[in-house]
Design brief:
Length: 406
Amino acid sequence: MSNKFRWRDNPNIIARLLDANNINTWKAQEVVLKPNEACVFIVDGRIGDILTEKIVGNIAGGFNRFLGEMMGVTAKDRRLLFAMTGPADISVPFSANLPNGGKVSGFVNVRVQLRNDDIPKLLNMFANSAPVLDRKRLAEVLHNELMMRVVNPSLAECSSDEDLRSAAFQDKFEMRTEVELRSTLSTLGFTLLKAFLTANQTDNEKIIQLNAELSAATQTEGAHAEALMERIAVREAAMLRRIECEFNIQKAEAAGKVTVELQSELKDLRKQEARWEAELKRDEGKLNLRMKESSHKTDQAMALFEQVQAKKRDRVAQTQEHQNQRMDKQNELQVKMMEMAAQNDALTPEVMQEFLRQQTAQKAVDGPGADSQDNSLSKVNNSICPNCSKQIMPNWKACPHCGISL
């Protein structure tokens, strides 16, 4: 039994050099070569047949080959060179300047192909590099030579951006690429099929595009403005005509409607006057009612205040009378005590001083109460309006009876 071997697991791989001695499996390996794939056997340093479009069995591994290697029957160095024979597009980036100072960047697209007879030339590539050749590696190999011998001389002949986009420039670029890269590609085994330059938009082209977009936007905005002005003019004419017609109609009807309008306006004025008069009467009634309520409350407060003051005056008079009686009794008692002391020859200066001291102390106790009562009575008696002679509170600022300021 055999097992299928895949030499290409990435679509970017173009060629691969494989050492068959490194494939050590118990099952024999076989490979299926498609129409665009080829395989070259290199046995002990000699290039063998070039195979394509077939199934190649027993290329490496297997028990029989293991026995052959043990017995020294098989070759000591066996290598397999696989390659893609279909066209391959290689994109090489570049960046350069035009003679007018504009910067140009883009890609150089080179389409190459490996012929079956030229596949062994790939050994020149693998002699000093990895045994795998892909599109990126091939682009790196061609980049410097392509820039110095093809791109820069071709761009130096372009006097403007228009020349860069012309078909004549592409034809000259393809011919220059074919002439300048022929030896290099031939050494590697490739054949040039097509070459063209794809440049990005330059700064001048961007400026031209922006100017064109700005001009188109300006023209579009101008057209919109003109259309809007025309619509406004049409609306204005229609509105003026409508106003003129309404004015003529009102002028024609004014003669017959003046009297009716005046009468209607007069009726409205009379209704308004009647409504205002009713509102005025209503407000006056509310004001009179509030005044009556306020006067009634004031009279009630004054009556209550008079009752309180009368009771207070009676209480003060009773207190004063009681105090006078107590003082009279105390004076009589003191006189009797003095007489008794004089009769018994006990009226000494010390007794007189003690008598005067007690009398002074008693007056000191009774004096402030009497004075405060006299002051309160005077304050009560003085709380009378000087204009209408009615009772008022001491802290009132105006008389509620006559309205004068106190």
